[in-house]
TrEMBL record:
SMART domains named among the record's database cross-references: Elp3 (SM00729)
Binding locations of S-adenosyl-L-methionine: 26, 67, 118, 189
Protein name: GTP 3',8-cyclase
Biochemical pathway: Cofactor biosynthesis; molybdopterin biosynthesis
Subunit structure: Monomer and homodimer.
Annotated residues for binding of [4Fe-4S] cluster 1: 20, 24, 27
UniProt cofactor note: Binds 2 [4Fe-4S] clusters. Binds 1 [4Fe-4S] cluster coordinated with 3 cysteines and an exchangeable S-adenosyl-L-methionine and 1 [4Fe-4S] cluster coordinated with 3 cysteines and the GTP-derived substrate.
EC nos: 4.1.99.22
PROSITE patterns referenced in this protein's UniProt entry, alphabetically: MOAA_NIFB_PQQE, RADICAL_SAM
First-level EC class: lyase
Occurrences of domain Radical SAM core (ranges): 4-227
Annotated binding of [4Fe-4S] cluster 2, by residue: 253, 256, 270
Function of the molecule: Catalyzes the cyclization of GTP to (8S)-3',8-cyclo-7,8-dihydroguanosine 5'-triphosphate.
Amino acid sequence: MQDRFGRTFDYVRIAVTEKCNLRCTYCMPEEGVDFQGKEKILHSEETLRIIGVLARMGVKKVRFTGGEPLVRKDIVDLIEGSVATPGIKAVHLTTNGLLFDRYAQRLRDAGLTGVNISLDTLDADKFVRITRREGLEKVKDSIKLALDMGFPRVKVNVVLMRGFNEDELKDFTEMARDHRLTVRFIEFMPFDGHQIWETGGHFASAESLVKQIETLYPGIQPAPGTRTEHHIFQGNDHQGKIAVIPAFTRSMCGNCSRIRVTADGNIRNCLYSDKEYSLRELIRSGCKDDEIADVFRKAFAEKEKDGFESKKASSAQRVAVEDIGRVSMTQIGG
């Protein structure tokens, strides 16, 4: 599947729940958001049907996200079903790590090929400030467990914020010295439910992060990575890698290979687009697989050149605050 800009899509990110057991300040208000009822969230068989259709269209990689995907009790069944889908080569999961130990062995046995664990600070007090919950040691233990269990790919996602955790950059990069993991610094994005993003003071650009890494490790060399890992390095004496994801500056849009499905069954062809393409009611009306494929083709065909164009097109449609739509990353799929 290719769009009008020649980009091939082979990767789907599927949010399986809007719920999360953390309340990160850049994602969700402390009081939470109005989660949709269970009846509006895609059932596991509906999700697996979508994956089957996408696999026949050329999608090879699936990532389950949320909210926090491990709060969904059938997550292992979803992974097992995805792994068994002809054409799917890789099934990954992004988690905050709090429940990982409960599921780790079953996830490994189900064939999960990669796990990304989100962790924004190595300081216990800061962890409580950013997540509004306890649990730093549990997340660190989950990273160690994932490595010990030999998951093929283990990554640590760090949202780097000026004035909050930018001073921990070296502490995080040193994790890649002795461990076979990738530490990924992600630019702060404007999906914070109108909380701390509005000040504008926390943004640390990918360019500045790359410079800091090159200063810390003179002579560090570029390394192979995924298409979103626009800047990726590996030190001579490092077992793991260090990556910077320009999620806000959007310099990687030309390499985009993904599409998103929200927990309530809507396609989003770009993180910065408010436009959605509904699948849930179509599926529940008894449609044929070809009709599901047609909705994806339409979404692909209408994908903008980059995140700036998507944002511009979405903004043009807004005439009132209530038109902004989903304001929390947990509703979009992280």
